Amino acid sequence: QVQLVESGGGLVQAGDSLRLSCAASRRTFGSYLMGWFRQAPGKEREFVAAITWGGSTTYFADSVKGRFTISRDIAENTVYLQINSLKPEDTAVYYCAAADLKRLRYGSSWYKIRSEYDYWGQGTQVTVSS
Q1: Rounded CA gap, 91 and 130, in Å?
Q2: Cα(first)–Cα(last) distance of the chain, in Å?
Q3: CA torsion angle for 54, 18, 66, 76 (degrees, to 10)?
Q4: Which residues lie below 8 Å from residue 90, measured CB to CB, with a gap of 6+?
Q5: How do 32-39 and 46-52 pair as beta strands?
Q6: pLDDT tens for the 130 residues of the chain, in order
């Protein structure tokens, strides 16, 4: 069992920056892919970004590429999502998730699928005003 807790959301204006944090209960995540998803009101939860715990591989949704950065601090058991140049359409609840890579998976874009992740945080609200 892995517990994930997100923080760092808030009410900001367009053009501002935020850094979201995801603190994990375990110290070693070498066999996990850590991901960020977001869900706007009335919308489906969508993939944002992901990173292997070792940091050698990252993935980004086309909609956030160039503005969002994902990183991790192994010593602190924490994954970060840096969001720059925020837009009103970025308004959503942002969720942290962990996928166990020891399970066999298929498809080149499996990491974009919500059901492929084994653990989820409670989410942190990001609201961007114009």
Answers
A1: 11
A2: 40
A3: -10
A4: 38, 83, 126, 128
A5: antiparallel
A6: 789 999 999 999 999 999 999 999 876 667 899 999 999 999 999 999 999 987 789 999 999 999 999 999 988 999 999 999 999 999 999 999 999 988 877 888 999 999 999 999 999 999 999 9
Asked if 74 and 84 touch (Cβ cutoff 8 Å), the reply is no
Show the beta-strand stretches assigned E in the chain: 4-7, 10-13, 18-24, 32-39, 46-52, 58-60, 68-73, 78-83, 92-100, 119-120, 124-129
Task: Output the six-digit token pair for 73.
Answer: 């601090």
Q: Residue type at 4?
A: L
